Amino acid sequence: MSRSGDNAAKRSRVTEAVYERLLSKILEQELAPGTMVSELSLARQLGVSRTPVHRAIRELIADGLIVERGRRRPVIATFSGEGVTDLFEMRKLLEGEAAYRAATRIDRPALTKLRAMASQIRRSLRRPGLLDRWTAFDESFHQKIAQCAGSARLQADIARYRLIHRGLNRTLFTQELVPQALSEHEAILDALERRDATRARNAMIRHIAEWAAFYASSLR
Q1: Higher confidence at residue 110 or residue 63?
Q2: What's the pLDDT score for residue 219?
Q3: CB-hemisphere CA count at 13 Å for 126?
Q4: Do 119 and 186 fall within a single domain?
Q5: Are 96 and 165 part of one and the same domain?
Q6: Do 25 and 31 meet the contact criterion of CB atoms below 8 Å apart?
Q7: 4, pLDDT greater than 70
Q8: Looking at the predicted structure, is the pLDDT value of residue 6 above 70?
């Protein structure tokens, strides 16, 4: 990758990190509904320049978590269980389609790697550091399926909604929930290994619906 490519990737990672931090502050009500958002103040708090803060705020506006009031001042919106349900409905559409497409496109080495990662999580449910291992697996799993769907636009849209999911996980997900989530991932993986596109889509939709209900209930 060129130096310009490296710099662009680094800027993207910083923006994602700022997005997740701001989302966590919103979910934890550290930034309460109605609070006016100051780019300069947030940049100082987070130890970054204003540019990634500005980009993260624009993404949060696009996702409906920040709204613009008079003179385009960004203000924290009310984030409810109903809002989570709407966001996860989009995830079901996008990731259900990705799983359907990936079932006939994903290669055997990728399937083998995902199965090995799932098995490693299964064997280490009682070991320290489970949440970190789970987060890495969950991200790799959904990212690989999106990548194998064969659509750059679909992959990019999934990545955007995954940012919100990671923020919810960071705030509300606990290690006691890993076994259930792992079983759902294994069901999706079973369908992918059998090249059963319809089953893969349905398993993905069921998986996302389970966590939509959990997060919506938690926020209510």
Answers
A1: 110
A2: 77
A3: 0
A4: yes
A5: yes
A6: yes
A7: no
A8: no
- Tell me the per-residue pLDDT of 134-165, one tens digit each, with 9 for 90 and over: 999 999 999 999 999 999 999 999 998 888 88
68-76: Cβ within 8 A, 24+ apart: 69/36, 73/36, 73/37, 74/36, 74/37, 75/34, 75/35, 75/36, 75/37, 76/26, 76/31, 76/32, 76/33, 76/34, 76/35, 76/37
Q: Within this chain, do residues 195 and 97 fall inside the same structural domain, yes or no?
A: yes
User: What values do phi and psi take at 23, rounded to 5?
Assistant: -60, -40
Residue 116 belongs to domain with CATH number:
1.20.120.530
CA torsion 6-8-13-17 (nearest 10°) is 140
Same domain, 134 and 208: yes
Q: Could you tell me if 187 and 203 are in contact, meaning their C-beta atoms sit under 8 angstroms apart?
A: yes
- Does this model's pTM top 0.85? no
Per-residue pLDDT reduced to its tens digit, 187-220: 999 999 999 999 999 999 999 999 999 988 887 6
Return the bridge partners of 67, or none: 75
Q: Is it the case that residue 28 has pLDDT exceeding 60?
A: yes
Last residue of a domain, one of 76, 110, 139: 76
> Number of folded domains in the chain?
2
Do residues 22 and 60 touch, judged by C-beta distance below 8 A?
yes
The reply to whether 94 and 27 lie within a common domain is no
Q: Which domain holds residue 214?
A: 81-219
Do 11 and 51 share a domain, yes or no? yes
- Secondary element (H or E) of residue 75: strand 74-76
pLDDT surpassing 90 at residue 30: no
- Token pair 């259900």 is found at 96
- Does residue 94 share a domain with residue 72? no
